[in-house]
Design goal:
Elements: E1 8-16, E2 22-31, H1 33-51, E3 55-59, E4 65-68, H2 70-76, H3 80-83, H4 98-109, E5 114-121, E6 127-138, E7 144-153, H5 155-198, H6 204-236, E8 244-246, H7 248-265, E9 269-274, E10 281-283, H8 285-301, E11 308-315, E12 319-326, H9 359-369, E13 373-379, E14 383-391
Parallel strand pairs: 9-11
Antiparallel strand pairs: 1-2, 3-4, 3-7, 5-6, 6-7, 8-10, 11-12, 12-14, 13-14
């Protein structure tokens, strides 16, 4: 009467006389609205569980699986036939402490919901991270009959968090190291300049030597500041290169001339083998200069006295290549894949000249922007060779 829809179940019966004529019909109408609505609700819940983007699993009170949804299979690799009847321990990787599992069972056995993260193992053996919520399911009397687990694969998030933490740590180390690198030449500049100012009777030879040291330290400071500014611009994506036809020979001769005093002071032989009349490249002059400066100064820096640094420039019809080879400390094999990463440093015990972790990342950026390629070969205690190649200028 009021317009509501009711679900009913009807039954009817007709009685007939001896001649077959119907004489009486009886029937019952049963209101099954609540039952039908409950069935619809169950269907919705079942569909939601089945199609859920989350892993949903139901276990008995011992942790034995009784139900898993399709997402469970998608993430873990276990089909329902393989999983049901197994204990959830099939996902344990051994990467987490027994204490964590003890806390989990204490919580859910007490009727509480546990939330946390698992480092689980798939059927294939691959490890993955899972953020999970495990809750007890109780009957009408409050007794725990099952446990319900709802979980998400958070591997990508964990990787991002780890990468962020590593980046923060590297930047923290970078700032600390740059502070040290800035203070060292500044202390030398101020110390020698102060001595010159205080000693009015200093002989000309000593004054010239101190002035040269101030100049060298000033150059070192300038290079460091330029590198810091460059890496900041790279982080902001605001580095622009002006490409034009240019000769790498000219750049290299200038850089070698600047670095000869540095090599001489450290008693390192700086030698060169530069082929003349090489093809031009399409490059940014300042960037190529910085690239050569970083590689050559690094080679001298990490080569002990009496060592050698050899700079070679050669080419073919496709590429111009620059090689910088030293007889220095070398780079451990485990560090080689990361040396071009921003802020990554090779830790060297008992050495003041640790580096800032930005020079080689700048080199890689410059080479990439010039459509080139860079290679490195190194052996600890034997030395290192850096080689970069830039395409020659085409006919067009």
């Amino acid at each position: 009467k009021d317009g509501r829809i009711k679900y009913v179940e009807e039954q009817g019966e007709t009685k007939y006389n001896s001649s077959g004529k119907p004489i009486l019909s009886t029937g019952t109408v049963l209101d099954i609205t609540e039952k039908k609505l409950a069935e619809q609700e169950l269907t919705k819940l079942s569909t939601a569980v089945t199609q859920s983007p989350s892993v949903i699993a139901i276990t008995d009170t011992d942790g034995k699986l009784e139900y898993v949804n399709p997402r469970f299979t998608e993430i873990t690799g276990y089909t329902p036939q393989e999983a049901i009847g197994q204990n959830l321990r099939i996902l344990k990787s051994g990467e987490q402490s027994a204490e964590m599992y003890k806390e989990l069972w204490e919580a859910i056995s007490a009727g509480k919901t546990w939330r946390g993260e698992f480092h689980n193992k798939k059927k294939s053996g691959e490890l993955y991270w899972e953020g999970a919520s495990i809750s007890p399911v109780m009957d009408a009397k409050g007794n725990i009959t099952h446990y319900l687990k709802v979980a998400e694969n958070i591997s990508l998030r964990k990787q991002a968090e780890l990468a962020l933490q590593e980046n923060i740590m590297m930047k923290t180390n970078f700032v600390s190291n740059v502070s040290h690198e800035l203070r060292t030449p500044m202390a030398s500049i101020l110390g020698y300049a102060g001595t010159i100012l205080r000693d009015k009777n200093m002989d000309s030879e000593t004054r010239m030597e101190f002035t040269r040291i101030i100049y060298d330290e000033g150059q070192r400071l300038t290079r460091l500041i330029e590198n810091v500014l460059d890496i900041s611009r790279m982080e902001a994506g605001s580095v622009n290169y002006t490409l034009h036809p240019m000769s790498l020979e000219m750049v290299l001769h200038e850089v070698l001339e600047i670095h000869q005093p540095m090599a001489k002071k450290k008693q390192v032989a700086l030698m060169s083998d530069i082929r003349e009349d090489l093809p031009l490249i399409n490059g940014d002059n300042d960037a190529m200069n910085q690239l050569a400066v970083n590689l050559i100064s690094n080679a001298i820096k990490f080569t002990d006295p009496e060592g050698e640094v050899r700079v070679s420039l050669y080419g073919d019809k496709d590429f111009i290549s620059l090689e910088v080879t030293d007889t220095g400390l070398g780079i451990p094999e485990e560090d080689l894949p990361n040396i071009f990463d921003k802020f990554y440093r090779v830790e060297r015990e008992k050495r003041e000249d640790q580096g800032t972790g930005i020079g080689l990342s700048i080199v890689k950026e410059i080479v990439d922007k010039h459509a080139g390629k860079i290679e490195v070969q190194s052996q600890v205690g034997q030395g290192t060779t850096f080689k970069f190649s830039i395409p020659v200028l085409g006919d067009g």
